[in-house]
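User: I'm new to structure prediction. If I give you an amino acid sequence, what do you actually give back? Let's try with this one:
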Amino acid sequence: MTIRIVRGNPTPEELAAALAVVRARAAAAFAAPPGAAAPRDAWSDPARLAAGRLPAPGPAAWARTYWPGS
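Assistant: Good question. You get back a string of structure tokens that encode the predicted 3D arrangement of the chain. For your 70 residues, that looks like this:
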């Protein structure tokens, strides 16, 4: 595997941190059994959206049920 810096000038510490992440992800993918499903990221979990407060009742309440902070 070859990693090439395309843009920018990272410090040695930044480069080491990025490579540590890449190596950890590669090791985790290699250790997973064949055919195993990848774990879901928390940000894509639909339950995260429902954890907040419910919208105020009204004519457009249905449109505010999906988008947090609306």
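You can read the tokens as a compact description of the fold. Here is one thing that stands out. The CA atoms of residues 34 and 44 lie 24 Å apart.
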